[in-house]
């Protein structure tokens, strides 16, 4: 029996002073109710559907999204989906840092 594995990528970057997120997968299927999320605060919530600052469906924006949030280090971003029981789960998690853009702390405004 062979086992297949697939890559799910979420990349954060600074463009025009804003936080941009891009995502891609080589899976031949879509995530169920997949969403790209930016969280409030300084961590990932226990429940991936909670504490959103911004979110969008992974079917929107052709895999590249200007969040309209000012760039900064410390943004917690994730790609989430529903598991077979209907609970939100993390597929990929990213925390912005100075290797992705300028070294300024995020602003919640």
Count every helix, treating DSSP H or I runs of 4 or more residues as helices.
Answer: 0
Range of helix content: under 10%
Strand line-up of the largest beta sheet: 4-3-6-7
For this structure, the CATH topology is Immunoglobulin-like
General shape: globular
List keywords for this structure.
109 residues; 3-stranded antiparallel sheet; globular; Immunoglobulin-like; 4-stranded antiparallel sheet; mainly beta
Walkthrough of the structure:
The chain is mostly beta strands and 109 residues long. It has one domain (9-95): Immunoglobulin-like (Sandwich), CATH 2.60.40. It is 0% helix and 45% strand. The protein is built from no helices and seven strands. Strands 4-3-6-7 form a four-stranded antiparallel beta sheet, with no helix packed on it. Strands 1-2-5 form a three-stranded antiparallel beta sheet, with no helix packed on it. Strand 6 and strand 7 form a beta hairpin. The radius of gyration is 14 Å and the shape is globular. The protein starts with 7 loop residues before the first strand and ends in a 14-residue tail after the last strand. 20% of the residues are buried.
Furnish the topology, listing elements before pairings.
Blueprint: E1 8-15, E2 18-25, E3 35-39, E4 52-57, E5 64-70, E6 76-82, E7 88-95
Antiparallel strand pairs: 1-2, 2-5, 3-4, 3-6, 6-7
Kindly summarize this structure in a few lines:
By secondary structure, this protein is mainly beta.
């Amino acid at each position: 029996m062979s086992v297949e594995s697939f890559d799910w990528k979420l990349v954060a970057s600074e463009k025009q002073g804003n936080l941009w997120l891009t995502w891609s997968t080589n899976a031949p299927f879509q995530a169920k109710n997949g969403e790209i999320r930016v969280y409030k605060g300084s961590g990932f919530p226990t429940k991936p559907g909670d504490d959103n600052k911004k979110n969008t469906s992974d079917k929107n924006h052709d895999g590249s999204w200007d969040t309209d949030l000012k760039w900064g280090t410390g943004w917690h971003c994730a790609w989430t989906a529903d598991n077979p029981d209907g609970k939100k789960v993390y597929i990929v998690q990213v925390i912005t840092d100075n290797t992705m853009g300028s070294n300024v702390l995020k602003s919640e405004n």
